[in-house]
Write a structure and sequence with these properties.
Layout lengths: L44 E4 L2 E4 L22 H9 L10 E7 L2 E9 L3 E8 L12 E2 L6 E7 L6 E8 L5 E4 L6 E2 L7 E2 L10 H10 L7 E5 L6 E2 L5 E2 L2 H15 L3 E4 L3 E2 L12 E5 L6 H13 L3 E6 L25 H4 E2 L4 E2 L6 H17 L4 E4 L2 H5 L21 H17 L4 E4 L21 E3 L1 H11 L10 H5 L1 H4 L5 E5 L11 H4 L4 H17 L3 E5 L24 H19 L13 E8 L4 E6 L8 E6 L5 E8 L3 E8 L15 E4 L9 E7 L3 E7 L2
Parallel strand pairs: 12-15, 12-25, 15-18, 18-21, 21-22, 22-23, 23-24, 24-25
Antiparallel strand pairs: 1-2, 3-4, 4-7, 5-8, 6-7, 8-9, 8-11, 10-11, 13-14, 16-17, 19-20, 26-27, 27-28, 28-33, 29-32, 30-31, 30-33
C-alpha cells in the first residue's frame, strides 16, 4: 500500500458533528430497521431505440408527467435475495443512476442503499439542488434500497443524494456510491452518464483466453497517470486519458514491457493520496477525462499487445463527508467499532467485511472493472492490513476473533469470495496480492485452503535486495545471506518481484540514490540490480522512472525527469532495461518455470569473499538453460572458474557492463569452451572474466 498519511483538504471533507471522531473510544452501532413484508415487484428489461424500458408491476398506460415515478424498479426478488446474502456481484447494473425509459418518457432511474434513512431525495443542477422536489421511495422488502425514476434526465446532469437519517437529526449530501462519473475535484457531485463504447480489442481478448494457464513472461511497468508526463507549457497539467493513449502504449511497447499497472484510477478527491483514498469506486478519475476516454486508453494498450492491471483498494476508504463514511447517519459501509472500523495508519475507515451488502458492493466493484473496462488484472492493495485484526495496533486497540485469534475471519472470507468470483467469471484474468507477511498459501487455491490469488508481491526479496545493494561493496561479503535468502522461499508462493512506487517516496530517495559509491559505481550497481532481478525467479514489476535512473524522489505533482535521457548513463540504463525485457521474453528459461523449483539451480552461493553468486535458470528443455553470474564488487575477476552442467560452447547473451549501457565493457570472448575439469560438483567448467559490479548471462550454443 502506498497511500501517504495526508489529511483531506477542508474543501473536500467537512465531517458532520454527529460523526464519530478518532479520539472516541465508543461508537454508536445502529441496526437496520426492518420494514413491513415485501410487496413483490417483477422487473424486466426491453431494448428500445438504444435505451432500456423498465416494466412496473402493472401495465403501463400513458400518464401525466410527474417529478418522480415510484412504480419502477430494476430489481427482481432474486436480486434482493442475492444482495442480502452478499452474493450479488453485478450491482452496478442495478444501483446508481441509469439512463432508461419509463411510461413512454426518457429519463434516469436512481437506486441507493440507505436502510437507516427517513428520507432520500435526488438533488442536482436539474432542480437547483432542491432537497424537497425529487424524493425516492424505499422498497418494502427490507433491503433498505431507495429508488425512483426521474424523467428528462438523459445524461450529463450533476446530482447527489440528500439523506435525512432516522437517527440524531443527521442529514447529509452524498455522492452516489455507484456513480460511473464524478465532477472534477474539488467539486464532489456525481454525474449521470452511460458506459457505451465501441471496443476494438477483440484480438487481444481472444489471445488472452487462448494463453490462459500457460507460462508467460510478465514484465510490468507501474504508472501513476498524473505524473508520468506533464504539459509544462499548459500550467504543468497532467496528460489526459486521450493524450496518454497517444504516448504511453507506444512507449511501453518500445520498452518491451508486457503489462502496465495503473495506480488507482478510481475517483479520488485528493491527488496527494495517489488514488488510494477512493470516494468513487465505480467512477474513473475525472481529472484525466471521461470513462470512455479511459476505455480508449485501455483499448489502445490492448491493440499494442499490452495488458492492463489496476490497483484495487478494498482495505479502507476516506472520511470525506460526501463519500461512503457514515452514509445514512449510521456506520453503513464501515464497521461501527473503531477497533475494527478505523485505520490508524491512513486516517480512514475500514469496510465492514461481515456485512453482506458491503461484500456485494466490493466484489461487484472488482468485477465491474473487468467487465466494463476490459481490465486484465487487479492488484489488491494492503492485503496484510485486511488479514490481521491487530495490524498497526497496540495491545488493547483490537478485538480478537471468535476463536481468540488475530486473524480477520470476515476479511479472509471476502478475499476468498472475491478471488473465486473473479476466476469463475474471468478465468484468464490475474489477481495479485500486495501482502507483506508470511501468511500461508496466499496464492493457494481456495478449495485447498488458500486465498486464491494468482501472484503475490515478494516483499521480502525487495527489502533484502535493496538493503544489500545499499551497502558499500567492501562490506557485502558479510551479508551474502541477504542476497541468497530469497531462494529458500522463492517457490512457496507464485511471486512477483516489485520495485514499486513505495520504494521511492517518503524520504527514501530514488533507486539510483540508494546505490553506494561514485557516479559510475551507482549506475553500475543499479544496472546489476535490474539484471539480477530479471534473472531471479518470479514475474517483474518496475515503477516508472526506474528505467531512466530517475535521480530525484518521485513527486506526484511533477513529471518524470525525461530530460535525463540526454546523458549517457541515463539513456544507457533505459536501453539496458529495453534489452532485458526483450531477452526475458525470448528466453523460455527465464519464465517457463518461474514458480517451480525445477526452474532454478545454484552453481555457487558460497563465494562470499568475492561477493559472487552463480546459478542456472532452467526451462522445460535443457538446451534453454541460462547460466547467470553476478559480481557485486567493483573488482574484475580474471580466470574465474565455474562448474557447468554440460560441455560445449557457451555464448554470452547479456552483460550489464557493456559499454552501450554505460559500463566499462569488460567482456568475455564471443564463445567459451567448457572443459572436462570438475568444479562445483560438476564434470565440466568454464573460465570466465567477471566484469565489475555486473551480471552476465551465458547459454550453451545449440
Amino acid at each position: 500500500m502506498g497511500a501517504p498519511v495526508t489529511p483531506v483538504p477542508v474543501a473536500e471533507a467537512a465531517p458532520a458533528t454527529e460523526k464519530p471522531k478518532r479520539a472516541r473510544t465508543k461508537a454508536v452501532a445502529v441496526e437496520t430497521t426492518e420494514p413491513k413484508p415485501a410487496r413483490k415487484v417483477r422487473a424486466t428489461k426491453k431494448a428500445a431505440a438504444g435505451t432500456e424500458t423498465i416494466a412496473a408491476s402493472q401495465t403501463i398506460v400513458p400518464q401525466e408527467k410527474r417529478a418522480v415515478y415510484h412504480d419502477v424498479s430494476r430489481f427482481s426478488e432474486f436480486d434482493i435475495y442475492l444482495f442480502k446474502e452478499g452474493r450479488h456481484f453485478t450491482l452496478y447494473e442495478k444501483m446508481g443512476a441509469h439512463c432508461t425509459e419509463h411510461a413512454g418518457q426518457k429519463g434516469t432511474y436512481f437506486a441507493v442503499w440507505a436502510p437507516n434513512a427517513e428520507l432520500v431525495t435526488v438533488i442536482g443542477d436539474f432542480n437547483h439542488w432542491n432537497r424537497e422536489s425529487h424524493s425516492l421511495k424505499v422498497r418494502e422488502d427490507g433491503s433498505g434500497i431507495w429508488e425512483g425514476f426521474i424523467p428528462d434526465l438523459t445524461g450529463g446532469e450533476l446530482y447527489k443524494y440528500h439523506i435525512k437519517s432516522n437517527y440524531h437529526l443527521y442529514h447529509v449530501e452524498k455522492s452516489d456510491p455507484f456513480a460511473f462519473a464524478r465532477e472534477k475535484p474539488p467539486q464532489t457531485a456525481s454525474r449521470i452518464c452511460d458506459l457505451k463504447y465501441e471496443w476494438q480489442d477483440h484480438e487481444w481478448l481472444e489471445r488472452r483466453k487462448t494463453i490462459a494457464g500457460q507460462a508467460q513472461p510478465m514484465s510490468v511497468y507501474e504508472v501513476h497517470l498524473g505524473s508520468w508526463r506533464r504539459r509544462p507549457e499548459d500550467n504543468n497539467r497532467p496528460l489526459t486519458y486521450h493524450e496518454l493513449a497517444e504516448e504511453l502504449p507506444a512507449y511501453v511497447k518500445e520498452m518491451g514491457f508486457t503489462h502496465v499497472e495503473f495506480m488507482p484510477v478510481m475517483h479520488h478527491p485528493f491527488m496527494g493520496s495517489w488514488g488510494y483514498q477512493i470516494t468513487g469506486y465505480f467512477a474513473a478519475a475525472s481529472v484525466y477525462g471521461s470513462p470512455q476516454e479511459l476505455m480508449h486508453l485501455i483499448d489502445v494498450l490492448h491493440q499494442h499487445g499490452i495488458g492492463v492491471i489496476l490497483d484495487w483498494v478494498p482495505s479502507h476508504f476516506p472520511s470525506d463527508e460526501h463519500g461512503l463514511a457514515y452514509f445514512d447517519g449510521t456506520h453503513l459501509y464501515e464497521h461501527a467499532d473503531p477497533r475494527k472500523g478505523y485505520h490508524p495508519d491512513w486516517n480512514s475507515y475500514i469496510f465492514n467485511y461481515g456485512r453482506n451488502e458491503v461484500r456485494s458492493f466490493l466484489i461487484s466493484n472488482a468485477l465491474f472493472w473487468l467487465d466494463k473496462y476490459h481490465v486484465d488484472g487487479l492488484r489488491v492493495d494492503a492485503v496484510a492490513s485486511m488479514l490481521y485484526l491487530d495490524y498497526s495496533r497496540k495491545e488493547g486497540e483490537w478485538i480478537p476473533n471468535e476463536n481468540g485469534g488475530r486473524e480477520n475471519l470476515e476479511a479472509i472470507s471476502l478475499i476468498k469470495d472475491f478471488n473465486q468470483a473473479v476466476h469463475e467469471k474471468y478465468p484468464d484474468v490475474q489477481t495479485i496480492a500486495e501482502e507483506s507477511t508470511a501468511w500461508p498459501a496466499v496464492t493457494g487455491k481456495v478449495n485447498d485452503g488458500g486465498l486464491g490469488f494468482n501472484m503475490k508481491w515478494m516483499m521480502g526479496w525487495m527489502h533484502d535486495t535493496l538493503d544489500y545493494f545499499s551497502k558499500d561493496p567492501i562490506y557485502r561479503k558479510h551479508h551474502q545471506g541477504e542476497i541468497t535468502f530469497s531462494i529458500i522461499y522463492a517457490f512457496s508462493e507464485r511471486f512477483m518481484l516489485p520495485l514499486s512506487h513505495d520504494e521511492v517516496v517518503h524520504g527514501k530517495g530514488s533507486l539510483i540514490r540508494k546505490m553506494p559509491g561514485d557516479e559510475w559505481q551507482q549506475f553500475a550497481n543499479l544496472r546489476a540490480l535490474y539484471s539480477y532481478m530479471y534473472a531471479h525467479p518470479g514475474t517483474k514489476l518496475l515503477f516508472m522512472g526506474g528505467e531512466l535512473a530517475q535521480s530525484t524522489e518521485w513527486n506526484h505533482d511533477s513529471s518524470l525527469d525525461w530530460h535525463l535521457l540526454q546523458y549517457k548513463y541515463h539513456s544507457g540504463m533505459q536501453h539496458m532495461l529495453q534489452q532485458l525485457n526483450k531477452l526475458y521474453q525470448q528466453e523460455p528459461a527465464l519464465y517457463e518455470l518461474s514458480f517451480d523449483s525445477n526452474g532454478f539451480e545454484w552453481i555457487d552461493f558460497q563465494d562470499a569473499h568475492n561477493s559472487v553468486i552463480s546459478f542456472l535458470r532452467k526451462g522445460n528443455d535443457p538446451k534453454d538453460d541460462i547460466l547467470v553470474v553476478c559480481n557485486f564488487t567493483p573488482i574484475v575477476h580474471q580466470h574465474y572458474r565455474l562448474g557447468v552442467p554440460a560441455g560445449g560452447e557457451w555464448v554470452q547473451l547479456f552483460n550489464s557492463d557493456d559499454e552501450q549501457y554505460g559500463g566499462s565493457n569488460v567482456q568475455n570472448q564471443e564463445s567459451l569452451q567448457a572443459t572436462e575439469e570438475p568444479s562445483h560438483g560438476r564434470s565440466y567448467s568454464l573460465t570466465l572474466q567477471l566484469p565489475p559490479l555486473a551480471v552476465v548471462y551465458f547459454k550453451l550454443k545449440s
